[in-house]
């Protein structure tokens, strides 16, 4: 069964593998298949579920809410996010203004069929709204009981520090950061992770398998497998293209002996790798088939020896992206 970890300096425990439904639910897979994946997650002990109002333009929240209907609410940890537009593109349909936050949480609660969410996350930093306005709105949601904890996604180290300072003044639990993180994408290590440790925030990382690159299924010199994310022009291809380089694909293939030595698949190795970072509370896994959930769950609790962690670094070498400035690129400078 999947292990639990504390989220930030809070008393909240979440499963170190968290099921996420970005791209898949209400998009790549039919609702029945999505529900089967959620059931598989529950079967292996995953109780933490991550979504966002923008995923499939609100439909992903609806699918997750329906899939979890009938489960004991107190035994689940449900996370969602606010920032990106979900309406027709009106002047206030995006961002972290008080208006958009208040309207968005009520829509999310309705779609998720719950009275509260355990973690509500600012999906990006809003440069056009005073941070005080955003954090004050979050505080009102916490104090009303509609939100238990606050988090952010793809914020810089300085933004995390500023948010944490206001959260402390407002007496609300600011506990998490949700960045991209994998063997190939380590931009949080030099600045975001130290700042997060400083203020009591954990990472809930997305794309630990680098959009599927670290499964090893994409081979150098070969066309992407039919039906893979790299061939999905609707959503997946644009996110994976940065990793579809011959030098990256070649080096990833050299990770296979390390995975074999540990008795892991390549995907399990990639997920276990991010969990070696003690500031990571959870790795978000997605799936289009229940068996993927069951396979990925085997990464929980794996300890990778230090010498193998060093070998991984040596194998990947200079194809690893480490520039902290790449975090700023994750969100718009203006809405």
TrEMBL record:
Location of the NADP-dependent oxidoreductase domain: 17-315
One Pfam family of this chain: Aldo_ket_red
Family matches, as InterPro entries: AKR (IPR020471), K_chnl_volt-dep_bsu_KCNAB-rel (IPR005399), NAD(P)_OxRdtase_dom_sf (IPR036812), NADP_OxRdtase_dom (IPR023210)
Domain of life: Bacteria
NADP in keyword set: yes
UniProtKB keywords: NADP, Oxidoreductase
Family: Belongs to the shaker potassium channel beta subunit family.
Protein name: L-glyceraldehyde 3-phosphate reductase
Species the sequence originates in: Demequina sediminis
Encoding gene per record: gpr_1
């Amino acid at each position: 069964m999947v292990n639990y970890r504390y989220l930030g300096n809070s008393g909240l425990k979440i499963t170190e593998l968290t099921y996420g439904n970005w791209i898949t639910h209400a998009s790549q897979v039919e609702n029945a298949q999505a529900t089967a994946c959620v059931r598989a997650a529950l079967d292996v002990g995953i109780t933490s579920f991550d979504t966002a109002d923008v995923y499939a333009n609100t439909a992903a929240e609806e699918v997750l809410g329906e899939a979890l209907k009938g489960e004991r609410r107190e035994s689940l940890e449900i996370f969602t996010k606010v920032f990106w537009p979900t309406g027709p593109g009106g002047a206030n349909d995006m961002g972290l203004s008080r208006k958009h936050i208040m309207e968005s949480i009520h829509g999310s609660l309705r779609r998720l069929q719950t009275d509260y969410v355990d973690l509500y996350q600012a999906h990006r930093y809003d440069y056009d709204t005073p941070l005080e306005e955003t954090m004050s709105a979050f505080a009102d949601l916490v104090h009303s009981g509609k939100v238990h904890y606050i988090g952010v996604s793809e914020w810089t180290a300085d933004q995390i520090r500023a948010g944490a300072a206001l959260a402390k003044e407002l007496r609300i639990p600011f506990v998490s950061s949700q960045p991209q993180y994998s063997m190939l994408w380590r931009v949080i290590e030099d600045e975001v992770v130290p700042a997060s440790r400083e203020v009591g925030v954990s990472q809930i990382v997305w794309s630990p398998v680098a959009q599927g690159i670290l499964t090893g299924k994409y081979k150098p010199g070969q066309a992407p497998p039919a039906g893979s994310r790299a061939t999905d022009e609707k959503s997946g291809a644009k996110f994976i293209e940065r990793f579809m380089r011959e030098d990256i694909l070649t080096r990833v293939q050299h990770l296979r002996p390390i995975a074999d030595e540990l008795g892991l698949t390549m995907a399990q190795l990639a997920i276990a790798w991010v969990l070696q970072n003690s500031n990571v509370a959870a790795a978000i896994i997605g799936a289009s088939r229940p068996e993927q959930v069951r396979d990925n769950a085997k990464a929980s609790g794996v300890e990778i020896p230090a010498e193998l962690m060093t070998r991984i670094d040596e194998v990947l070498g200079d194809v690893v992206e480490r520039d902290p400035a790449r975090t700023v690129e994750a969100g718009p400078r203006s809405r």
